[in-house]
Amino acid sequence: MVEVSEADVGGGKLAISALATEIGAHNATIDCLAFGKEVSVKFNHTLVLEALAAITTEDVAIEFSGSSRPAIFKPVGDNDSALHLIYPMTVR
């Protein structure tokens, strides 16, 4: 079971990390188009996977407005698809 999923955006990179006590940690970094301030957000991984699975376009836009505010996941180029609003987790 994944305990913490975190996304860090900045400098043209999206870094995603996940931690599962029984399995260990995984980190991945991909290039992205990033605008605005750098942000670090923790999400429930199940909600992110469900949103990404429902988006059928090759590119996905993720709009952040801060680390404690919800993010919007939406397909790029498909104006008829639904938006996915995902609230961040508070990990203490």
Provide an overview of this structure.
- The strands form two sheets. A four-stranded antiparallel beta sheet has the order 3-2-1-4. Strands 5-6-7 form a three-stranded antiparallel beta sheet, with helices on one face.
- It is globular and about 40 Å long.
- It is built from one helix and seven strands.
- A hairpin with an 8-residue loop joins strand 6 (71-75) and strand 7.
- The protein starts with a strand and ends in a 6-residue tail after the last strand.
- Helices cover 11% and strands 43% of the residues.
- The chain has one helix at 45-54, and strands spanning 4-10, 13-20, 24-31, 39-43, 60-63, 71-75, 84-86.
- By secondary structure, it is mainly beta.
- The model has no long low-confidence stretch (mean pLDDT 85).
- The chain has one domain (4-86): DNA Polymerase III, Chain A, domain 2 (Roll), CATH 3.10.150.
Q: Which key phrases capture this entry?
A:
single chain, about 90 residues, mainly beta, DNA Polymerase III, Chain A, domain 2, 7 strands, about 10% helix
